[in-house]
Amino acid sequence: MDRTSQLTACAPERGTAYDPPAPSGRPGLPGLPGLSGPAEASLRARAARVLAANWTGSSTVPSRSLYPHQWSWDSAFVAVGLRHLSPLRAQTELETLLAAQWGDGRVPHIVFNPSVPLDAYFPSPDFWRSSTAGRAAGAPRTVQTSGIVQPPVHALAVWLVHRADPVLSRARGFLARAYPRLAAWHRYLLHRRDLGGGGLASVVHPWEQGMDNSPCWDLPLSRIPPAPDGSFRRADLGHGAAEDRPTDLDYGRYVRLAADYRDAGYADGGGDFAVEDPAFNALLIASERALARIAEELGAPGTARRARAARLTAALVERLWEPASGMFLCRDLRGGGLLPERGVSGLVPLLLPELPGDVVGALVRTLRGPHFGLGRSTALVPSYDLLGEAFDPHRYWRGPAWFNTSWLLERGLRTHGEREPADALRAAVPALAGASGFAEYVDPYTGEACGATGFSWTAALALDLLHARRGPTVSRTATGAFDTSDKGGDRR
């Protein structure tokens, strides 16, 4: 997401004090507060308040002060947690996003709120010009969006939201309306974005992959001429220190890529940046498997989609697995070859149940080894190699730990029977979410809050893992009220 333009310093918003967790007995590993009894109930209530405060009536903003629109993969993660409070609101969250889908099938990474002033966020709707520049690609006329995409976690989210209250879902026709849109979204990625010809989807901008300024992008970005000085404004520098932000040179390259894509009518295949990313494709495969379950729920066969997921998994291993690194790497389609940087993206394929056993074993060793330190020096998974030259514990996706990637890896570890590290993440995500004021991301060593606080997906995913720890608690009501007194739902 292009939130590199909107960061705050590594401290909570609104001047609130932050007391980092006391260190545990293991060097560098932040101590985790207990979550039993009243403490857990308080954390659930605080997380619910974050989601209520960021709710607009039809969707949830990531942060009221910094990100005042709807983001694509944010909404998917928010819906996963929101389903435990209100299945109706969770369904509405996803329906609002999918309603902004383009005619070619793409789901845009931002849906703009027309009531928000243009200068509140950059790049703003007047930069993207979706309704005019995107006309040939079928951009909607009635809502302004960006023209790029984000990781396709949506079908997985739709399936989990359905499972939270199947009765309500069937009564509203939730799956029947979502399925054709999700199928079109996957067709777009599998056909329009197979730029390498090997079956995998490519991203055409770092913002599409969601991990904006990851060191994985440094080499392919170095070939992009930056936009001229003065041709764009950096809203991010009003929120924190410049040394915690992308450089002006890098930001100029982000703007150049986006502007070139826009000026080409958002046509795919001709740009100077095209990368096959492990996490993006792993989420596509996981969502393809979820689409199979949705199809079967609707009375259609899911066999073809499961077979496609298996083929995509094989392609992922063939094209992006690097045994010497013990993880998946990004493939630069314009420069040729695998990019050597170890980012958390290369661990996310643990989500996939059909990975070969030797690949799973190597990924778990890498996750728990010195490069990511899970359970030894870190409680959440850092976004980048702890031993990498570009590592910075406070600089956005160049080292800090993010709650969504740890949530994904908790699911992946559990998928492959790695119960001990999965249980540790299941405890750490909600504990550090609460201790950090539901921060956007945290220092992987200390748990120090970075970016925005009161961040929606942090609160939502903490709720989901709290739910998993204690069992179903969501109300089966069609009212949409935040009622947690009854039972329903699961994490399948």
SSE series: HEHHEHHHHHEHHHEHHEEEHEHHEEH
Please state how the strands of the largest beta sheet are arranged side by side. 3-4-7
Termini separation: 27 Å
Overall radius of gyration: 21 Å
Shape: globular
CATH T-level topology: Glycosyltransferase
Protein name: Mannosylglycerate hydrolase MGH1-like glycoside hydrolase domain-containing protein
Family: Belongs to the glycosyl hydrolase 63 family.
GO biological process, one term: oligosaccharide metabolic process
GO molecular function, one term: Glc3Man9GlcNAc2 oligosaccharide glucosidase activity
Description:
The chain is mainly α. It has a single domain (37-468), classed as Glycosyltransferase (Alpha/alpha barrel). Helices cover 41% and strands 4% of the residues. The chain has 17 helices and 10 strands. The strands form 4 sheets. It has a 3-stranded antiparallel β-sheet. Helix 2 (72-82) runs parallel beside helix 6 and helix 16 (419-435) packs across helix 17. The protein starts with 37 loop residues before the first helix and ends in a 22-residue tail after the last helix. Mean pLDDT is 88; it is low at 1-9, 11-30 and 472-492.
